Amino acid sequence: MKKFLISFLVVLSLNIKxxxxxxLVIFSCDRPLQLYALLESVERYVTHLGQMHIIVRSTNxxxxxxxxxxxxxxxxxxxxxxFGPHDFKQITLQSLNELPHKYILFAVDxxxxxxxxxxxxxxxxxxxxxxxxxxxxxGKNCTLxxxxxxxxxxxxxxxxxxxxxxWHFNEGSCDWGYPHTVDMTLYKKEDILHDLRTLEYSxxxxxxxxxxxxxxxxMHRLGVCFEHSRMINIPMNRVQNEVHNYNxxxxxxxxxxxxxxxxxxxxLKFYKIDNNNSHMDAWPAFVQx
Length: 289
Prior knowledge:
With 289 residues, the chain is of the alpha/beta class. The protein has one domain: Spore Coat Polysaccharide Biosynthesis Protein SpsA, Chain A, CATH 3.90.550.10. Helices cover 31% and strands 22% of the residues. It has helices at residues 2-15, 32-45, 61-73, 88-98, 119-129, 189-198, 204-212, 252-260; strands spanning 22-29, 46-47, 49-57, 78-81, 103-108, 111-113, 117-118, 133-135, 159-161, 164-168, 185-188, 222-226, 231-233, 263-265, 286-288. The relative contact order is 0.17.
């Protein structure tokens, strides 16, 4: 009877479907309101997520206190405190070395997930097509540039079925030909570690900017995305001075005040939104936390 039970358990274990996981590294600075929305949307919509590290920087005690409230609401995240541009690369690499899984995503704090994402499915899809990355910000709906709304041509997809699109980077324009991004793209960690170790960067903007300079070596590779994007980036404000990128001009202090009033962004308003770029201007609705 004992031998039979052991054999049965072995057979049972072999028939249990294994699931792959991916880890997530989030970059946040003086944006507790936006970070709360990102974490809430990840918790609601993303499955088979491994560890989550948040590299956070507060420029004064008011933001630091607000972040404490965020982390109390999402206690499973591992917090890495950043003190300035000088330690950003060191902490980023430390997280990459500590994360246990083979696949990784990066995110900035003004992203909101807008639909369900099964990371196990995304990983297996990457393996199926030998893709370089799974681009959760991309989809057939991404047809306009940002912030100038010029028309963006879709690439000729190598595969366009099952709710998936596959393309070569060197046949894509604008975002379709931009393989290195910190906006919720799934990568195999071993494919990107060399770049992140050798590049010089001190913030997410310079990380992405300098990383873009290494793209030539992988432009022949494939990217994969869902038919419709699964996230948006709402650039309500700018919290760094390295890159003067476009934003909606809402002061960080105003958004901190809204957070301190006990409010949060109503992420349900963005569920399955029909956006035409991964970035969009939107003044969100606020509800009580």
